[in-house]
Amino acid sequence: IKLLTNNPRKIIGLKGYGLKIIEKVSLEIEPGDKNKKYLNTKKYRLGHKLKKV
Q1: pLDDT digits (tens, 9 = 90+) for 28-46
Q2: Dist CA 41 CA 12 (whole Å)
Q3: 1 CB contacts (<8 Å, ≥6 apart)?
Q4: Quick one: DSSP state of residue 43?
Q5: N or C: less crowded end of the chain, CB within 10 Å?
């Protein structure tokens, strides 16, 4: 499958069900005042692949 995600755990989980990931496409938005802290937490605590945070 072609997977739209920034979450590395999601990739591992889907592979565990035997799904073949042929491509991973990152989805990213510009951080704003209301979501910057949330996105920062996702990046540094959960390992999400975010470049703009």
Answers
A1: 999 999 999 999 999 999 9
A2: 20
A3: 14, 19, 20, 21, 22
A4: H
A5: N
Coil, helix or strand for 49? coil
Please report the beta strands in the chain, taking only residues with DSSP state E, as ranges in sequence order: 2-4, 23-25
Residue position matching structure tokens 């951080």:
31
Mean pLDDT of the chain: 95
Residues 50/37, Cβ–Cβ less than 8 Å? no
Q: Which residue has the tokens 């990152």?
A: 26
Whole-structure pTM over 0.90, yes or no?
no
Per DSSP, what are the bridge partners of residue 23?
2
Percent of the chain surpassing pLDDT 70: 100
Q: And the tokens for 7?
A: 């979450």
